[in-house]
Amino acid sequence: MKRYLILEDGTVFPGEGFGSSIITTGQLVISNNRTGIEQSVTDPNAEGQIIAFTIPSVGSSGINRDFYESINSQCKGVVIGSSSISTVDDSVSFENWITSLRIPGIKNVDVRALSRHIAEHGEMKASIMDTHDEHAIDQIKALVLPPDLVKRVSTRQSYPNPNMGRKIVIVDLGLKYSILRQLSYRDCNSIIVNYNSTAKEIENLHPDGIIYSNGPGNPQDLPNVIKNIQILQKKYPILGIGLGNLLIALANDCQIEKLTTPHHESSLAVKEVASGKIDFVNHNHSYTLDQKYIGSSDFIVTNICVADGTIEGIRHEYLPIMGVLFEPEAAPGPTDGYYVFDEFIDLIDSVKQQEGAGSQWN
């Protein structure tokens, strides 16, 4: 079935439809991931997005349902160059999988030309449609994408991920399963709460530390979360990941900006400033910290992206607060970033030792 990927600037990319036949509109994101397609499609960060994969052919290894990052798919559509039939026994094909998830897809698209266009003009809205007339383009231009993406993916009911170690409260802004896995490996007793939980509700859980997870959308759409961080950061160690990192920055008078070339890649190099060590880690973000404001803040930059120099990690000079913009839990991507969870646990233990010795850190 002939279908069209139509960008809000009027550019049209023809292709062949697969998956669901519904018309869909979302934020078009160019993903350079070579593996981990399952994680990308089920990542809560993909809420409201149409993901265009630049890999020449998708699906040669089939789909592994053990690699899901949430129970349900989050993305609005997928765009690919071509798909392959899996050679793995008992593995479902990519196209059948997308169909089972009721996601619209379009293939045989010139993804290289699409990627160049987005690199030149920036991320924009797009639709997968059956026609490409002027009326269709006007519809896309007029559509306002919803700002409540975090509300759509955050848990509605608090729940535990039990263990016997340190108690970590995770504020779910779009939590990936792999974060829970990393905390479980470290014997953390986690409690996952809704993004809009009040500071008092979180305090009543008596956490040893708090994690603000990664998630979709613009952090400036979450003023209540920013206010909660301003209260809680004076009392508890905090780790921010992805969107959580940006919210921590905004809570401390920093500013953010949209990347000219957003980071959506499973193996992008990041340098640790103190040691010069290079890590290859997963990225999935369109915003970063405005470097003009970091110098006058109480944050030091801990990590930068090798490719473009953007800030990828921060740490507070006086409070036990740290954050990374990349995704240390990987999924997909290399495991180089796992150390971030170890550093956060060390931060929690350091605060406990200070409190045990009768000193105050805040």
UniProtKB/TrEMBL annotation:
GO terms for molecular function: carbamoyl-phosphate synthase (glutamine-hydrolyzing) activity. It catalyses: hydrogencarbonate + L-glutamine + 2 ATP + H2O = carbamoyl phosphate + L-glutamate + 2 ADP + phosphate + 2 H(+). This is carbamoyl-phosphate synthase (glutamine-hydrolyzing). Pfam families: CPSase_sm_chain (PF00988), GATase (PF00117). It comes from the Bacteria. The keyword ATP-binding does not apply. It is an enzyme of class 6 (ligase). Belongs to the CarA family. Keywords: Glutamine amidotransferase. Pathway: Amino-acid biosynthesis; L-arginine biosynthesis; carbamoyl phosphate from bicarbonate: step 1/1. NCBIfam families: PRK12838.1. The lineage of its organism: Bacteria, Bacillati, Bacillota, Bacilli, Lactobacillales. Its EC number is 6.3.5.5.
